[in-house]
Structures are given as C-alpha cells and as structure tokens.
Amino acid sequence: MIPVVTIDGPSGAGKGTIAQNVARELGWGLLDSGSLYRLTALACIQQTIDFEDLSAIELIARNLPVSFQSVPDGLKIFLNNEDVSDAIREETIGMAASKVAAMGGVRDALLERQRAFVSAPGLIADGRDMGTTVFPQAPLKIFMTASCEERAQRRYKQLKEKGISVSLAALVADLKARDEQDSNRPISPLRPADDAIMIDTSNMSIEQVTQKVLELVKQTFS
Ligand code: DC
Predict the structure, then answer these.
(1) Does residue 20 have its Cβ closer than 6 Å to ligand 1?
(2) Strands (DSSP E) along the chain, which ranges?
(3) Is the Cβ atom of 58 under 6 angstroms away from ligand 1?
C-alpha cells in the first residue's frame, strides 16, 4: 500500500510549512487540502455566487478547473489557467473557505479529488480532516497545534515580510473565529483522530518539527 501521512490541526499551526518540508525531504507528493476549499471560495467570489446558494457552490467545488505545478520553492496553483497562488492566501479567502468548508455538499464534492492525490512513493496530506475522514486508514496521523497567540505571531511575521501590515489583535480575533467555525461544524469538524500523535509546536522551530515528523515517518514505515 502507498504510504500516507496525515497532518491536521488549526490554522497557523505550521502544518503547511512542515508538510512541504517533509514531502520535499522524502520526495513524496503533497496534498494541501485547504487550497481546494480556498479555490472553491475564490471561484465563487469571482463568479459572484451567493454564499447561501449551496447547490451552486457544490457545483463549483465539483468542477473546479484547477491545476498544480511544482516549482523549486513550492507549488503554483492555477484556477482556469490563472495563477492564483497568492490570491488564495488572503485572509478574506481563508474566512470564505472556512464557510464553504462547512457545507456537506462541498466536502463530498472534494473527497475523491483529495483521495486521487495518493501516488507512489507516498503522500503527505495537510488539512483539518485528513486523518478522520479523507484518509482514516493512514498508518501515521499527526495533529499539530500551537497556542493561538503563537499562531497569530507567526502569521503576523509572515505578512510583515510580505509588506502587508495588519494588527496582531485582528489576527488573533480572526484565528479564533476560524478555529471556532472549523471545530464546531457538524460535518468533519477539526478534531484529532483517535490514533493521532499530538505535536505542540508552540516552542519548537520549523527545523525541529520537520525532524520530529521525519523520525515518526521512519519509525512507522521502515
Ligand atoms: O488550511 P487552510 O487555512 O488553507 O484552510 C482554509 C479553510 O479550509 C479552513 O479554515 C478550513 C477549511 N479546511 C477544511 O475544512 N478541511 C480541510 N481538510 C482543509 C481546510
């Protein structure tokens, strides 16, 4: 069986960076499942779809014209052949993604698309329900957390480096709202799988977390 490692956790816990590092280090594929919810949200906004129109949103999710392209420093994401790699990272799109992600029809529409990412030699899948719903049979499941303040600080630093100025208090409020929305929805809420290994990254460097996950991969698959 092709090995799958799931990494779930709240926004800003460092999942994306770690998943990317580990996938690169192992030469495995990467599924950034949040990007599919972000792309759905962006496509709805571009097509001025009403966020209450569940069937129209589900249709968008089912037919997303998306493609991914590996580049040396990560992944480029295209919607209708337009490079939206940066556009989908906006905070407003994150919030809208969290909203469409609460819709059962959207989650169903994206399920098989996510499972189709499994290919040799292995897959690192990053999201909220990778270990609980999408890949419940994965032999290694990680749940990554960090305090809300630490997550907001990291995001603040990232945005500042990009020349975007936001208030730290606004980021904390935004993260709390998104955690609340993702954890309390009835369908596939954010929660650790029963057999997940918890990693609190609050006081760990990116390098330390990457090494910790690589060790777990080695223990599990060799
Ligand atoms: O990981 P992210 O911030 O890119 O995800 C954006 C939103 O998508 C997040 O607030 C919740 C939703 N999401 C989800 O519900 N399930 C996933 N597997 C991944 C993301």
Answers:
(1) no
(2) 4-8, 29-32, 66-71, 74-79, 82-83, 123-127, 140-145, 197-200
(3) no
* Concatenated DSSP letters of 130-190: IIIII-TT-SEEEEEE--HHHHHHHHHHHHHHTT----HHHHHHHHHHHHHHHHH-SSS-S
Residue 222 domain-assigned (yes or no): no
Q: Determine the Cα–Cα distance for residues 212 and 167; give it in Å rounded to an integer.
A: 32
Helix axes 54-62 and 33-46, enclosed angle (nearest 10)? 120
Range of the structural domain that residue 163 is part of: 4-214
Whether 176 is in a domain gets the answer yes
CATH code assigned at 150 = 3.40.50.300
| Angstrom distance (rounded) from CA 142 to CA 8 | 6
21: in domain: yes
Residue nearest to atom 9 of ligand 1 (CA): 98
Tell me if 107 CB under 6 Å of ligand 1.
no
What does the pLDDT look like over 113-146, one tens digit per residue? 999 999 999 999 999 999 999 999 999 999 999 9
**In this structure, what token pair is assigned to residue 94?**
């994150």
Tell me phi and psi for residue 136, to 5 degrees: -65, -20
Total domains, the chain: 1
pLDDT of 164-201, one tens digit each?
Answer: 888 999 999 989 998 998 899 998 899 999 999 999 99
